[in-house]
Amino acid sequence: MTRALCETRAATAVEYGLMLAFVVIVMIAGLTDLAGTTSRMWTRIEAAVAAAR
Predict the structure, then answer these.
(1) Runs of H (alpha helix) within the chain
(2) How many CB atoms neighbour CB 6 within 10 A?
(3) What distances in angstroms separate CA 3 from CA 9, 15, 16, 17, one per listed residue?
(4) d(CA 40, CA 46)
């Protein structure tokens, strides 16, 4: 009985680890996209300010 409980806990820990890894990967992808979008926005603003001078 104790061995089955330990195996269940280990499986649960692995599942939580996989879910955490997936969440981290999705967050990194989202932040990378956000960084690119923000960079393009500031480039357009810089060009507009330079053109207005």
Answers:
(1) 2-52
(2) 10
(3) 10, 18, 20, 21
(4) 10
Cα end-to-end distance, the chain, whole Å? 78
- State the CB neighbour count (10 A cutoff) for residue 17: 10
Could you read off the pLDDT of 2-47 as tens digits, one per residue? 676 667 888 888 999 999 999 999 999 999 999 999 999 999 999 9
* Alpha carbons 19 and 29: distance in angstroms, whole number: 15
Residue 53 DSSP SS3? coil
How big is the chain, counted in residues?
53
Report how far apart, in Å, the C-alpha atoms of 46 and of each of 6, 22, 38, 40 are. 59, 36, 12, 10
